[in-house]
Automatic annotation (TrEMBL):
<dbReference type="GO" id="GO:0047444">
    <property type="term" value="F:N-acylneuraminate-9-phosphate synthase activity"/>
</dbReference>
<dbReference type="Pfam" id="PF08666">
    <property type="entry name" value="SAF"/>
</dbReference>
<dbReference type="InterPro" id="IPR006190">
    <property type="entry name" value="SAF_AFP_Neu5Ac"/>
</dbReference>
<dbReference type="InterPro" id="IPR013974">
    <property type="entry name" value="SAF"/>
</dbReference>
<dbReference type="InterPro" id="IPR013785">
    <property type="entry name" value="Aldolase_TIM"/>
</dbReference>
<dbReference type="GO" id="GO:0016051">
    <property type="term" value="P:carbohydrate biosynthetic process"/>
</dbReference>
<dbReference type="InterPro" id="IPR057736">
    <property type="entry name" value="SAF_PseI/NeuA/NeuB"/>
</dbReference>
<dbReference type="InterPro" id="IPR051690">
    <property type="entry name" value="PseI-like"/>
</dbReference>
<dbReference type="InterPro" id="IPR013132">
    <property type="entry name" value="PseI/NeuA/B-like_N"/>
</dbReference>
<protein>
    <submittedName>
        <fullName>N-acetylneuraminate synthase</fullName>
    </submittedName>
</protein>
<dbReference type="Pfam" id="PF03102">
    <property type="entry name" value="NeuB"/>
</dbReference>
<feature type="domain" description="AFP-like">
    <location>
        <begin position="291"/>
        <end position="347"/>
    </location>
</feature>
<dbReference type="InterPro" id="IPR036732">
    <property type="entry name" value="AFP_Neu5c_C_sf"/>
</dbReference>
<dbReference type="InterPro" id="IPR020007">
    <property type="entry name" value="NeuB/NeuA"/>
</dbReference>
Length: 347
């Protein structure tokens, strides 16, 4: 358990919901600001972007992933694709100020050392590290030295690779780490999600855990909330039909709002876990439960046998569970059929 900007992250607290804008601004700061506006309207805890210098992130000969080719509709180099999606540091300073003005937490995933240092310099509250850098131990160690909370996605990773990443961060002395289960495909098919792995991670490392979702729709994120996810991250966009690698696997603004509302409703419904009747059930309890009543007219002085008892609504009298405390006792006054029998009526 740890805090991000005063918000407690961990069991017993509401899930920390991150609206992942990523590169869905298409390199346009005005679109980025509109994404901030929509995240605010959705009621999420934070909006997250991606900060990188293309030259420091990828070589000129790196090929695009298959999903990127499919979503963009053409085969190009990663360098050319990412260069079009890059925002300047000055842009991010402006976006962060806009987030402060709009009262939503600004986060961004750094993809290179220089970008990580920049985000630290502007006072970012926590650092999200992408699945792609889970095995980048030098990068993990560098960010761990910032002594800021770290949220680490674990797409494409084995449990032993997650362990290596956690140990690398812990060895620096940073213990404020959360790991998000993730399937690194855009969109991810339901049969590839393996959502139970989220709690496998939590139990294996006794760590704050959550889920970064790339499936279509909001079903799996709601399931993750019901399973106790501490953090939930989901891509969103202004328009799923926009050109770019992630738009088609992202939520619309309306869907993002529906997701956030559904997650909060699930958390409300989960409750404390203590099995007890709710105050709202008292009236129903009286109307629906049953009481011990006389099965016939019984005269004073008669002994009650089992066949003299019946059990009928309302539940405002003696509970049927006390029937053995009545059987064999003498009635102290006349009782009419269907009249509720109480302890003060027997000797």
């Amino acid at each position: 358990m740890f805090k991000i900007n005063g918000k407690i992250i961990g069991d017993g607290n509401p899930a920390f919901i991150i609206a992942e804008a990523g590169v869905n601004h298409n390199g346009d700061i005005n679109i980025a600001k509109k994404l901030v506006d929509e995240a605010v309207l959705a009621g999420v805890d934070a909006i997250k972007f991606q900060t990188f210098k293309t030259e420091k992130l990828v070589t000129g000969y790196a090929e695009m992933a298959e999903y990127q080719k499919n979503n963009i509709g053409k085969d190009d180099s990663q360098f050319n694709m990412l260069k079009k999606l890059e925002l300047s540091y000055e842009n991010f300073i402006e976006i962060q100020k806009y987030c402060i003005h709009k009262k939503i937490m600004f986060l961004s995933t750094p993809f290179d050392f220089e970008s990580a240092d920049f985000l630290l310099s502007i006072g970012m509250e926590a650092f999200k590290i992408s699945s792609a850098d889970l095995t980048n131990i030098p990068f993990l160690e560098h960010i761990a030295r910032f002594n800021k909370p770290i949220i680490l996605s674990s797409g494409m990773a084995t449990l032993s690779e997650i362990e290596d990443a956690i140990n690398a961060i812990y060895c620096i002395g940073n213990k404020e780490v959360a790991v998000l289960h993730c399937t690194s495909n855009y969109p991810a098919k339901l049969q590839s999600v393996n959502l139970n792995a989220m709690n496998t991670i939590k139990n294996a490392f006794k760590i704050v855990s959550g889920y970064s979702d790339h499936t279509q729709g909001i079903t799996v994120t709601i399931a993750a909330a019901a399973m106790g996810a501490n953090i939930i991250e989901k891509h969103f966009t202004l328009d799923k039909c926009m050109e770019g690698p992630d738009h088609s696997a992202s939520l619309s603004p309306l869907d993002l709002k529906d997701m956030a509302t559904a997650i909060r409703n699930v958390e409300m419904a989960l409750g404390s876990g203590i099995k007890m009747y709710n105050a709202s059930e008292v009236d129903t309890m009286k109307a629906a439960r049953k009481s011990i009543v006389a099965a016939r007219d019984i005269n004073a002085g008669e002994s009650i046998s089992l066949i003299d008892l019946d059990y009928k609504r309302p539940g405002t009298g003696l509970s049927p569970k006390f029937y053995l405390d009545i059987v064999g006792k003498k009635i102290s006054r006349d009782i009419k059929m269907n009249e509720q029998i109480a302890f003060n009526m027997v000797e």
